[in-house]
Design brief:
The structure is a homodimer of 136-residue chains.
Chain A: E1 8-13, H1 16-26, E2 31-35, E3 44-48, E4 54-59, H2 60-67, E5 79-85, H3 88-101, E6 104-111, E7 117-122, E8 128-133
Parallel strand pairs in A: 1-4, 5-8
Antiparallel strand pairs in A: 2-3, 3-4, 6-7, 7-8
Chain lengths: 136, 136
C-alpha cells in the first residue's frame, strides 16, 4: 500500500538565508539557493542528496500557513538526523572540518553506549545532526 | 568533504509503543519493533526505507539525554516529511487508506499553489507528513 519511502525532508527554519548559508557553506551541499519567491510562502531552498532524497529548507511560518497551525517554540527533542561515515577517524575528521567551517559542536565525538562513535552538531535553528560511525 | 547524504531520520516520540504501532500498522512499514531495551535510553524502533534510508523512532527523553538538553513542547513547525506518489489519484487513494487505518487527516488533499496536489497527515506526536504528487 504505502511504499516505505521518504522523498523530501523539509526543515522549518527561522531565517531562510542563514540556513541556506549553513547547509551550502558549512556542510558544502549543492543547492540552487532560494527559489519560489514569486509565490506567497513559496520561498524555499532544495538540496539534492544521494539516492533521490531532497533536503528542503522552508520558513517555519510557511509550514504554519500551509498546515494551518500556530508555531510554538523550536524544539530540539523532535528530530535527530544522522550522517553516517565509515570509521571513527572519519567522524573526528568531519567534525573538525565542520567546526572550522562554523558549525556549532553540540556534543564532541565520543564512543556511544551501543558501540558506535559519534558527535552532535546543531544547525542555526538547533536541528540536531549526528555524525556517526556504526561498526555493526 | 561531507557527502550530501542522510542515513537515519530519527523522530522524537512521546510514547514509543504508540508510535511503532502507527508506522507499522497505519503506514504498513516494516520493522522488528522495539529493540535495545537492555540499554539505558536504548529502546528504539527502526524502519528500513528505500535507498538505504532508515526511519528511527526514539523517545524524546532519550534524545534529550543523548544531547544533554531539556525538551520544550513538541513543535509542528520544525519538520515536514513528504511521501511522493505518481498521480493526484494516488494521493487521494493513499490518504483514504491511511484515514481508514487510523491516521489523523490534518489537511485534506487539494491542489497546491506551486502546481502539486497533496494533503497532510499527522503522526501521534504531531509530526507532519505530506502525501503529495509533483507533476513537474
Amino acid at each position: 500500500m504505502m511504499r516505505p519511502a521518504i522523498s523530501y525532508i523539509t526543515l522549518g527554519v527561522t531565517d531562510l538565508a542563514r540556513s541556506v548559508n549553513f547547509y551550502r557553506d558549512v556542510f558544502g551541499w549543492p543547492t540552487a539557493g532560494i527559489v519560489g519567491t514569486e509565490l506567497t510562502h513559496g520561498a524555499v531552498a532544495f538540496f539534492k542528496l544521494q539516492h533521490g532524497l531532497t533536503l528542503a529548507l522552508w520558513p517555519r511560518n510557511s509550514i504554519a500557513a500551509d498546515a494551518g497551525i500556530g508555531c510554538g517554540e523550536p524544539d530540539q527533542c523532535g528530530l535527530l538526523l544522522a550522517h553516517n561515515v565509515t570509521s571513527a577517524a572519519e567522524v573526528d575528521q568531519l567534525m573538525s572540518i565542520l567546526a572550522t567551517a562554523g558549525a556549532t559542536i553540540h556534543k564532541p565525538a565520543q564512543p556511544l553506549v551501543w558501540g558506535g562513535y559519534g558527535g552532535l552538531i546543531a544547525d542555526p535553528d538547533g536541528h540536531l545532526w549526528e555524525i556517526v560511525y556504526n561498526p555493526n
